[in-house]
Amino acid sequence: MRNVFIFTLLAAFSLGALADHHKGDQDGKARDHKGMLKQADQDGDGVVSTQEHEQALENMADKRRERFSKMDSDGDGSLSKEEARAARREYREKMREKYQQQHK
């Protein structure tokens, strides 16, 4: 049950980041997936090789590990409900500030 809670929490934060990534640019134009492909295409040849794909996955895993570590405020290797709530409050506050800055 604890693993389900942690997975759900991480998925929620990941979806928030993903939604923020796909909301579009300042002109209201929708972003496409070319940015993700371009980022994964390390050698710039216009295609993503298996090796480049694996590296992109590793980079994503590293970012998630870092995010988990930030949420694990006591450093015990697991997330408590209190840590999850604190991380959620911090994330909401950060998004509120970002929204306010964009709409001044």
Give the topology.
Elements: H1 2-21, H2 34-40, H3 50-71, H4 81-102
Report on the structure:
- There is one protein chain.
- The chain is mainly alpha-helical.
- It has a domain of 62 residues.
- The protein has four helices and no strands.
- The longest helix is centred in the middle third of the chain and has 22 residues.
- It is flat.
Give me a quick take on this structure:
With 104 residues, this protein is mainly α.
List the main descriptive attributes of the protein structure presented here:
104 residues, mainly alpha
> Which spans have pLDDT < 50 for at least 5 consecutive residues?
24-30
Mean pLDDT: 82
The total count of strands amounts to 0
Q: What is the 3D form?
A: flat
